[in-house]
Amino acid sequence: MVYYNGALATCKSKQNERHISIPMEISQQIHKFIELRVPHSIISYEVHDSWYTCRPVPDSQCAQLGIRSNDPKPQVVDKDYISLLSPTKILVLGCSTWGDICEQFGDHVNVIATDGGVLVQIMHKSASKEKAVQCVLSDIGVRSENVMVFGDDFNDLGLFHMSGFPVAMENAIIELKNCAAHVTDSNDHDGVAVAIERFVV
Q1: Are 167 and 175 in contact (CB under 8 A)?
Q2: Which residues of the chain have pLDDT under 50?
Q3: Which domain of life is it from (predicted)?
Q4: pTM to 2 decimals?
Q5: Which DSSP string corresponds to 132-192?
Q6: pLDDT in tens, 17-66
Q7: Ordered structural domains, the chain, with CATH
């Protein structure tokens, strides 16, 4: 399984885990940089399977973070606690200056704006979905041209280029649809299941 845009990958059959976190010093600098430039933004940290923020996420913005009505929200902690973390991924909601983050910290992290630029995702520079998938495939002895992948946003482009059968969701960005082998139904209409039933089962 690949999580956090490739910053965490696990292979249960081989009992392997590959985890790449953002160093604490860099995450502290990024946090301060965002707070100074976009003080109204909501910054949250994903650390393995835990999710933290210093400011509660308003119900009106939950969907933008992928939180469904019954899903747990990030745990609210104080700034001292969050400043001591080495996050797997930093999520920033409402940050319009993501290009400035790239310019300032691009030597250390990957910065991806998704969901129409509303959500900024920040991972360690060496983390990507395609690298994580390649590691898992290497562990289990499968070649990338024999793999079907699914995607809907910019953070899936590298994955699409390394896969033998990339499938774009109906709600995907046009860049993914243009390089997809197939376009399936949207996320809301079980597009992954539809494609698997059509091509695999």
Answers
A1: no
A2: none
A3: Bacteria
A4: 0.80
A5: HHHHHHHHHT--GGG-EEEE-SGGGHHHHHH-SEEEE-TTS-HHHHHH-SEE---GGGTHH
A6: 888 999 999 999 999 999 999 898 899 999 988 999 998 888 878 777 77
A7: 21-124 (3.30.1240.10), 143-199 (3.40.50.1000)
